[in-house]
Amino acid sequence: xxxxxxxxxxxxxxxxxxxxxxxxxxxxxxxxxxxxxxxxxxxxxxxxxxxxxxxxxxxxxxxxxxxxxxxxxxxxxxxxxxxxxxxxxxxxxxxxxxxxxxxxxxxxxxxxxxxxxxxxxxxxxxxxxxxxxxxxxxxxxxxxxxxxxxxxxxxxxxxxxxxxxxxxxxxxxxxxxxxxxxxxxxxxxxxxxxxxxxxxxxxxxxxxxxxxxxxxxxxxxxxxxxxxxxxxxxxxxxxxxxxxxxxxxx
Length: 250
Hints:
The protein is α/β, with parallel strands linked by helices. 36% of the residues lie in helices and 19% in strands. It has helices at residues 12-23, 37-47, 74-86, 108-126, 166-175, 190-197, 209-224, and strands spanning 30-32, 54-57, 68-71, 93-101, 133-141, 158-160, 182-186, 203-206, 233-235, 239-241. Strands 5-4-6-7-8-10 form a 6-stranded mixed beta sheet, with helices on one face. Strands 1-2-3-9 form a 4-stranded parallel beta sheet, with helices on one face. Helix 1 runs parallel beside helix 2. The protein is elongated and about 55 Å long.
């Protein structure tokens, strides 16, 4: 069993070039992490004509039928984010939901963020015994400089970042000596871990990318080589990372 890797730059032109190359090649299975939504749908619809198994990881595209998905439930991870934001909060609080997107990001990832935010709000709607939480949302571009400012954080007690860019906010909070802000984000990026270690980030939700890749290849092996019936949708457990347990996860 051999595995070939195909990488592309973070733009649709590069992705389309690689996609066209892959469509000309013959494989027994495909492991795919979708990024650009429209382009991914077009590619997958063409690749399905080959009648070979396809497994998506990282992000799911619900509209594409008969393709397996291994990863996390975005809605449930947002619901968990809400719980982590509320953890230890005993008084009325102001929560900022800060979306940090790339300019090119009209993508499947945007859909993931929206599902996380939907799940986030659902937690507070269901838990009527909580203190009052007031919410505000701000969206900024990752590709542009100086979009964060202290005014955004005036009166803010908690910040929820629905993607892996919590370190950008954590750096601003630390550099500007903003105190007592409860910050929750995603993914064990090196920069995120550094701010988790100094307690600027309170919680990180780990998506277990290594497990997604491992289980994705295992899924293809069972289906292609062993001819076994396998679950077409497998949600991985959500993992909460704090200062005290992050070293056991890396």
